[in-house]
Amino acid sequence: MIPCIDFGGDGPALHFLHANGYPPECYRPLITRLTERYHVFSMRQRPLWPDSKPEEIADWHPLTDDFLQFLDEHPTGASIAIGHSLGGIVALRAALRQPERFRALVLIDPVLFPPPMVAFIRLIQVLGLSYRLNPYIPEALRRRRIFENRASLTEGYRRKSVFRNLSNPNLEDCVDGLTRPRPDGKYELLYSPEWEAHIYATGIWHDMDLWRALPNLNIPFLIIRGAETETFWNSTARRVLQKVPATRVVTIPQATHLVPLEWPDEVNRAIQEFLQENL
Predict the structure, then answer these.
(1) Rounded CA gap, 72 and 55, in Å?
(2) CA separation for the pair 233, 254 (Å, rounded)
(3) Which of 12, 49, 15 is nearest to 31 (CA)?
(4) Domain ranges within the chain, ordered by starting residue
(5) What's the rounded Cα separation, in Å, for the pair 206 and 63?
(6) Any idea which fold 4-278 has?
(7) pLDDT one-digit tens code per residue, 247-269
(8) CA–CA separation, 45 and 256 (whole Å)
């Protein structure tokens, strides 16, 4: 059985897929709001499985296989899929492969780049240069893994620019999700830096399959992006709208790629309005 968290809640089934490096618990402020209307499940993706190894995958397609297997293991009928970043691509590929399994699809700042960027990443991958040219990979591999105590951990994360828009309570929830206590009283990262780097190294280069299949998507489709994101560009949004004109795109002001962690109220409001109008 694929591990997951059942966050509970009443209503239709909703599956939330987390980003690379961010376990499901990081999203508790958003997911708690979603449980007011939906029964929320969050599969732990392969990097969070016990004894999983990065070399098991060469691209992101197996992560979608995992999600579809998870749906087989939890037969809730046609459900809602919401994915952030990597999780958005996993959900999108699943909905394109087996649309009958989904009532609606919500992507939050998905790692979806236009075809010229896909071609460039493909070239880098073919030349074996991903670990040398992708700036996120050395950053991930340098990530601190062990922390002396909870106070220093939170203080250190508060100083990181990536978390600048998170309120203190939301940062506390994020830290709870990112780490776990050790028997010696210290804290350690839950998400392996090696896995995080490997996900960066193996993504995007096969994504022309997404662009070719997008016109076939015929379920309610929402994309939420941060106004300051470096991941889901305005040009990508325009290209998606050309492929699927019925898509709704919502941009959250003063938000980055971590928009669901930064502004859970606003993201929840956009999701709830969209689902109430379309289901």
Answers:
(1) 25
(2) 15
(3) 15
(4) 4-278
(5) 13
(6) Rossmann fold (3.40.50)
(7) 999 999 999 999 999 999 999 99
(8) 23
Query: 21: which strand partners?
Result: none
Instruction: Tell me the two tokens of residue 100.
Output: 């009958």
Reading the block at residue 163, the tokens are 């978390």
Tokens standing for residue 109: 């700042």
What does the radius of gyration of the chain's CA atoms come to, in whole angstroms? 18
Range 1-27 average pLDDT: 97
Going by DSSP bridges, is the β-strand pair 102-108/221-226 parallel, antiparallel, or unpaired?
parallel
132 — pLDDT class (breaks 50, 70, 90):
confident
